[in-house]
Write a structure and sequence with these properties.
single chain, 110 residues, alpha/beta, six-stranded mixed sheet, 3 helices, 6 strands
Amino acid sequence: MAVLCTFGVASAQQFPSVQIETQDGKTIDTKTLIDGKTPVIISFWSTTCKPCIKELDAISEQMIDWLDEADFRVVAVSVDDSRSISRAKALAASRGWTTDLMVAYDKNQD
């Protein structure tokens, strides 16, 4: 099941440092997701978690309307292992998440 965490006032110093891969294949540190100014919702998901997929579909569908009301970002982190990353990337792209959300992959499951 997806876990949502809001870190509106958390600083990057308090946030764990984990290397994740973005949709375009770049490796970033999770500490760079938090700037201390913009709230961030982090949703953890996997290709086998149907409630997670439904949740991200709903978030993606409402994202444009929500951004009219508040400035925030949503990061969808796949916890699928390295063997199923290509399937996770295909799923995220086919559902349109990569347009509205930042999708990242923790293939080492850190």
